[in-house]
From TrEMBL:
It comes from the Bacteria. Gene3D superfamilies: Transferase(Phosphotransferase) domain 1 (1.10.510.10). Residues 347-372 are annotated as: Disordered. Keywords: ATP-binding, Kinase, Nucleotide-binding, Transferase. PROSITE patterns: PROTEIN_KINASE_DOM (PS50011), PROTEIN_KINASE_ST (PS00108). This is Protein kinase domain-containing protein. It comes from Melittangium boletus DSM 14713.
Length: 575
């Protein structure tokens, strides 16, 4: 089947050929990092170097990202090193060879240490504003600026703008009929006004949309709250009519000058905001010139991690040689609630109980396969709508130049010896696999059949097997906007309720899945056997957490501290 973008459903595309260690387009897949829509991102290796390899089903979605990244290759954003089609015969994917940026998303970085106002401006906002200005100067609008799409690079602490899958530029194919893709909480007033007055023409994205989104992001980082609420409230009306509480009033540690700068970025009329990057940079630098000691006060306290409880050592089973899981990017949910995008290496959740094997470096790929993928970045005057020989293509692709060399590539940061590399999009907290959190969890329950009637329930609500659905392991109203919304404590074997976030197919928002949590060495697993609608009607169901949830420092064999935002998936049997 194909979706509205001409792309195929995920389950029909992804099979064992994408397992770790397999070869794709001349690269050796190491681990799966991320999932966005129909695409996947893998940590991959070739010739001893690491790359982020993005696979997008054939269609216009991936070509837009290639074209956008070709235009902004001189900006301080993630680098496109090459692209091609795979397999060579009857290609099914557009493959993007991307720079591997080792680091963590901005919102994760913010919570790892006390951050003060001067640091936010000098280390994050100024370089990010300049990078976004370079993107706009190249004729590209990102259209999804938010914390999750900014990675704080580990080796120099600088922000890197990533994920241009929704980007727009002159002549780019349309993705949606009315409003551009993106996160609703970050949409600009002018975009929403257009939607209300739309008379048949698609909205034309403009740089002011990105500057507005940057203002929303800044407000969230300064206050840890959404300026206009989330999509479950009167979001559109608030964006169009409501003036948010000043950041320096909501959080008295925010300097007034910085709070007022943020409010100006959120003015309803575009002409009342900062017009472009130079204007915003000038305003920030002026605020810094007048900064006093209050700019060095941390905006939030970072709570100390609790001491782990002593645990009784238990005999351990012989370890199985399976790869350790890694954790990809956080997606912003309503801006404030960061969500772990739990991307499994295989369809079924792993029952990993042993340590990972040593990293094995593969030899360089055969020359013919490598040459078939390596591409020159085509001139920016050629767009995704023009194919070789200027012939019209049913699914237009960027113009490849076979067997040409890449542009000069900067050396990639190598992973620490003896350690599995950490992906650019990963690591939300230290795993409970360290010596400080050594545990001996009880064995996971054995495989089991699903409850009778669960298959019919899944079909009734249109829930697809192995499709990830977003939820939270606690009542959302008690978490969103609180300082501990990324940390809850759960116990091994305890009953668990997962509340759905947004609608899942035909399943209404705020439906509840009831089940049980289990601890393992690679994190917290969950099985769910009952589904209850907001109306109170109940059905049997067969679902698991899509991937084990990584535990945070302070976890023990009896209790685990985890991020409550996760994904659930329907399964045909319990693994």
């Amino acid at each position: 089947m194909h979706d509205g973008r001409g792309e195929q459903d995920g389950e029909e595309l992804w099979g064992p050929e994408f397992a770790p260690g397999r070869q794709v387009a001349g690269f050796t897949l190491r681990e799966r990092l991320d999932t966005g829509g129909a695409s996947r991102v893998y940590l991959a290796e070739r010739g001893g170097r690491l790359f982020a390899l993005k696979l997008v089903p054939m269609g216009q979605w991936g070509e837009r990202e290639v074209d956008a990244l070709r235009r902004v290759r001189d900006a301080a954003v993630v680098g496109l090193l090459g692209y091609g089609q795979w397999p060579e015969t009857r290609p099914r994917f557009l493959v993007l060879e991307l720079e591997w940026v080792e680091g963590v998303p901005l919102d994760v970085w913010a919570g790892r240490a006390p951050r003060h106002a001067r640091q936010w401006v000098e280390q994050v906002l100024l370089p990010l504003t300049r990078a976004l200005g370079q993107v706009h100067a190249a004729g590209v609008v990102h259209r999804d600026v938010k914390e999750a799409n900014v990675v704080m690079r580990q080796h120099d602490g600088q922000p890197v703008l990533v994920d241009f899958g929704s980007a727009a530029y002159e002549g780019s194919p349309r993705l949606t009929k009315r409003l551009p893709p993106g996160t609703p909480e970050y949409r600009s007033p002018e975009m929403l006004r257009f939607a209300k007055e739309w008379e048949g023409e698609p909205y034309t994205s403009r740089p002011s949309d990105d500057w507005w989104a940057l203002g929303v992001m800044l407000y969230i980082l300064l206050t840890r709250s959404l300026p206009f609420g989330d999509r479950h409230g009167p979001l559109v009306r608030n964006i169009l009519q409501h003036t948010p509480e000043p950041p320096h009033v909501k959080n008295p540690r925010v300097p007034q000058a910085l709070g007022e700068l943020c409010l100006r970025m959120l003015e309803k009329a575009p002409e009342s905001r900062y017009a472009d990057a130079p204007a915003l940079v000038e305003a920030m630098e002026e605020a810094l010139r007048g900064a006093d000691d209050t700019w060095l006060v941390p905006l939030f306290d970072v709570e100390p991690e609790p001491e782990p409880m002593p645990v009784r050592a238990e005999p351990q089973a012989a370890p199985r040689r399976v790869p350790r899981k890694r954790w990809p990017w956080l997606l912003a949910l309503g801006g404030a609630a960061a969500v772990l995008l739990l991307a499994p290496e295989a369809h079924r959740p792993s029952r990993e109980e042993g340590p990972p094997p040593p990293r094995i470096r593969s030899p360089p790929p055969p020359p013919s396969q490598q040459a078939g993928f390596r591409q020159e970045i085509a001139p920016v005057t050629r767009t995704a709508e023009v194919g070789p020989g200027a012939e019209l293509m049913k699914s237009p692709l960027p113009v490849p130049v076979a067997q040409a060399t890449h542009r000069e590539e900067k050396p990639m940061r190598k992973p620490h010896p003896g350690r599995t590399p950490v992906a650019s999009t990963v690591v939300t907290a230290a795993a409970c696999l360290s010596a400080a959190c050594a545990t001996a969890p009880r064995p996971l329950p054995p495989p089991a059949n699903c409850p009778p009637g669960s298959e019919e329930s899944a079909k009734r609500f249109g829930l697809r097997l192995y499709r990830p659905y977003l939820g939270v392991l606690a009542p959302r109203d008690s978490l969103i906007g609180t300082k501990n919304m990324y940390r809850i404590t759960v116990r091994d074997g305890a009953r668990s309720t997962l509340e759905t976030l947004t609608e899942w197919a035909q399943l209404p928002d705020r439906s509840l899945f009831q089940g049980e949590l289990y601890f393992a060495r690679n994190g917290v697993h969950g099985r769910y056997t009952r589904l209850t609608l907001p109306s109170g009607e109940s059905f049997p169901i067969c679902a698991t957490l899509w991937k084990p949830i990584e535990t945070q420092p302070g976890s023990t064999s009896e209790k685990a501290i985890i991020n409550p935002f996760t994904y659930l998936t329907v399964v045909p049997e319990f693994p």
